[in-house]
């Protein structure tokens, strides 16, 4: 198992190995592209400015760590567990709990220090609770029971192991592959409707990097799929994912109402004009929960909020990416240009605060209830569409017989 | 054949096929001339563009490299809608992937753009010792279904440029009606007049 003997954080371990890069003026002028390792050990390409941003992020992470440790010292370890006021609000509201809840929300949006992530995620996401409802040995028993079994899901998992973040210093080792395999195979048996869906490999891999033990990563995956994300996001026809895409398409014109300079054209209409369907890019964002698009620490910062505030966070972030580039997007005149702008943007978002500030301050508030209502509204259309497609497809395949 | 305005042609091209057949690898080979022993699995789809000169025309391919897992099927129409060309990829060392390719062909014949240029690529041709699908079998199938067929290898680069080149040559040139085949004859606005393309 990964790092069981050590309580230190992966991020810090990598950090110790990587000398802080101090780009020379020469390199700066030349605007050359360099390869470097980020906080979770991924090799990324960027220019000298990106390296500087990442160094600043490292410093901010350390600062945030000091804030959290100070709070633990003053409020007691696990203080953040005494914040569950929402459900029992009316009668037993304690002032201190409310204060803690407000502090916590703000604090989490500023980021959980990597060293505390396993503990905080595990308790706040509901994973701890989920785990507590089954016998202590659940995960080990499951892993043992399914060992050596071959199913379509296990075949696909085996196929994808070396294709999941290839080149990562831990994930791409026999040990890393074996851990990822056990988590994914275990889950495929826990929920046979999901089985294995491509995309989960990336999600589970990052969970392993953060949580450090397979078992905790497994429970985080379970809580993510079963409680945090929309239902049926990963099942046979990805219907939940289709629903999210429609909700997103609905939100975009409302949240990005900027007009283009010359004409009365909003970004959404402009993109439609180019025959750019936002799902072309957003599908991957939602299915991989941004893990394939954003730099690792930025992804983790999104997940910090996701596990505390719920799936509405994904809409905040997706909208923010469009919003950050509204002007540039309005200048595009080709689908390819739009995609290039968005890809360049996501890959270079090394500063998580740059993204999250837009996501929460500029996109404006959305509640989980509104999102749920939107989903309800879209569901029938999605089901009808998928159904119709299936029938047409069957007639296609039937024709040939 | 006549072309309107500049000799530039934009063509949307989609790659379809079973997971692991080598769609992304073919694109990577074509666009960047690279091959990775372990290519990340594609989620949703990935976009690339690459320009190539065929006869009198410069074709700019806008390539959609789709995800191969069965359940991603429901996303595929978004990518092949309006495509001018498709490459249906299977892995010569995997019989199932050939079956899957045939299903894609049927689907495109029924629901794709009728003028679509379709190519069948038997990829991983370098794995001769593990071959399960004969070239003959695939050729016959391709002929019966009006596709053109090539065996390719993203690893050795065998036929990779050729298959794209062949597609470029087969694309219908001048489009009389407006844009029926998902192709746009571009007459790009000069740099100074950007941002005027929308809302026209
Ligand atoms: N020997 C050999 N291996 C290949 C070839 N093309 C691809 N591969 C390998 O096959 C694996 C899958 O290739 P991909 O290009 O990722 O396949 P894909 O069709 O894009 O798969 P999905 O994205 O999962 O749908 C990779 O590990 C490649 O290195 C080839 O021509 N020869
Ligand atoms: Mg691929």
From TrEMBL, chain A:
InterPro entries for the chain: Rab-GAP-TBC_dom, Rab-GAP_TBC_sf, Rab_GAP_TBC_domain
GO terms, molecular function: GTPase activator activity; small GTPase binding
Name of protein: Rab-GAP TBC domain-containing protein
Residues forming coiled coils: none
SMART domains: TBC
Pfam families in alphabetical order: RabGAP-TBC (PF00566)
Residues covered by the Rab-GAP TBC domain: 111-310
Automatic annotation (TrEMBL), chain B:
Gene Ontology biological process terms in this record: protein transport; vacuolar transport
Function statement: Protein transport. Probably involved in vesicular traffic.
Record's subcellular location: Endomembrane system
GO MF term set: GTP binding; GTPase activity
Membrane-topology descriptor: Lipid-anchor
Gene3D superfamilies from the UniProt entry: P-loop containing nucleotide triphosphate hydrolases
Claim: Protein transport is one of the keywords in the record: yes
Entry GO terms, CC: cytoplasm; endomembrane system
Keywords: GTP-binding, Lipoprotein, Membrane, Nucleotide-binding, Prenylation, Protein transport, Transport
Superkingdom to which the source organism belongs: Eukaryota
SUPFAM superfamilies: P-loop containing nucleoside triphosphate hydrolases (SSF52540)
Alphabetized PANTHER family for the sequence: PTHR47978
One of the Pfam families matching this protein, by short name: Ras
Family: Belongs to the small GTPase superfamily. Rab family.
Region entry Disordered, spans: 179-200
High-level lineage: Eukaryota, Viridiplantae, Streptophyta, Embryophyta, Tracheophyta
Protein name stated in the entry: Ras-related protein RHN1
CDD domains recorded: Rab5_related
């Amino acid at each position: 198992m990964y790092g069981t003997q050590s309580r230190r954080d992966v991020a810090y371990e990598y950090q110790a190995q990587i000398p802080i890069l101090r780009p020379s003026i020469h390199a700066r002028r030349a605007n050359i592209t360099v390869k470097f390792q980020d906080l979770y050990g991924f090799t990324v390409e960027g220019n000298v400015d990106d390296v500087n941003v990442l160094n600043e992020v490292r410093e901010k992470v350390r600062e945030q760590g000091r804030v959290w440790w100070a709070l633990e010292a003053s409020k007691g370890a696990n203080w953040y567990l005494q914040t569950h006021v929402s459900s029992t609000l009316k009668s037993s509201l304690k002032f201190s709990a409310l204060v803690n809840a407000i502090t916590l929300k703000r604090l989490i949006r500023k980021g959980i220090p990597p060293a505390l992530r396993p503990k905080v995620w595990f308790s706040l996401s509901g994973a701890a609770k989920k785990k507590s409802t089954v016998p202590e040995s659940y995960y080990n028993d499951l892993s043992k029971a399914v060992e050596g079994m071959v199913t379509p899901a296990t075949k696909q998992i085996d196929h994808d192991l070396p294709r999941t973040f290839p080149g990562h210093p831990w994930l791409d080792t026999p040990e890393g592959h074996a851990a990822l395999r056990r988590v994914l195979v275990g889950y495929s048996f826990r929920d046979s409707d999901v089985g294995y869906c491509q995309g989960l490999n990336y999600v589970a891999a990052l969970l392993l990097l953060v949580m450090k033990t397979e078992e905790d990563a497994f429970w985080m995956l379970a809580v993510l799929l079963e409680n945090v994300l929309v239902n049926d996001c990963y099942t046979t026809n990805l219907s939940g994912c289709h629903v999210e895409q429609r909700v997103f398409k609905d939100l975009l014109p409302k949240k990005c109402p900027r007009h283009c300079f010359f004409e009365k054209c909003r970004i959404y209409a402009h993109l439609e004009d180019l025959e750019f369907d936002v799902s072309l890019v957003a599908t991957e964002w939602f299915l991989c929960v941004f893990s394939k698009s954003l730099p690792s620490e930025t992804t983790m910062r999104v997940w910090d909020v996701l596990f505390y505030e719920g799936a509405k966070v994904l809409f905040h972030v997706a909208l923010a990416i469009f919003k950050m580039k509204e002007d540039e997007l309005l200048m595009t005149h080709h689908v390819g240009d739009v995609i290039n702008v968005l890809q360049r943007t996501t890959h270079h978002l090394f500063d998580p605060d740059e993204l999250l500030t837009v996501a929460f301050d500029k996109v404006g508030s959305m509640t989980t209830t509104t999102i749920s209502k939107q989903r309800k509204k879209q569901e029938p259309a999605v089901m009808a569409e998928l159904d119709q497609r299936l029938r047409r497809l069957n007639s296609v395949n039937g024709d040939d017989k | 054949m006549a072309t309107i305005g500049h000799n530039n042609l934009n063509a949307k091209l989609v790659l379809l096929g079973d997971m692991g057949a080598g769609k992304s690898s073919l694109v990577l080979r074509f666009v960047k001339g690279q091959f990775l022993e372990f290519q990340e699995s594609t989620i949703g789809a990935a976009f690339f563009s690459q320009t190539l000169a065929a006869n009198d025309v410069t074709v700019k391919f806008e390539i959609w490299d789709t995800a191969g897992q069965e359940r991603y099927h429901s996303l595929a129409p978004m990518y092949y809608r309006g495509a001018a060309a498709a490459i249906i990829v299977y892995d010569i060392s995997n019989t199932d992937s050939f079956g899957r390719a045939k299903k894609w062909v049927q689907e495109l014949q029924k629901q794709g753009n009728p003028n679509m240029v379709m190519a069948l690529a038997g990829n991983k041709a370098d794995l001769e010792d593990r071959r399960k699908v004969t070239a003959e079998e695939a050729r016959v199938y391709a002929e019966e279904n009006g596709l053109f067929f090539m065996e390719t290898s993203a690893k050795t680069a065998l036929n990779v440029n050729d298959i794209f080149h062949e597609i470029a040559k087969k694309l219908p040139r001048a489009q009389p009606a407006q844009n029926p085949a998902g192709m746009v004859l571009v007459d790009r606005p000069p740099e100074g007049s950007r941002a005027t393309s929308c809302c026209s």
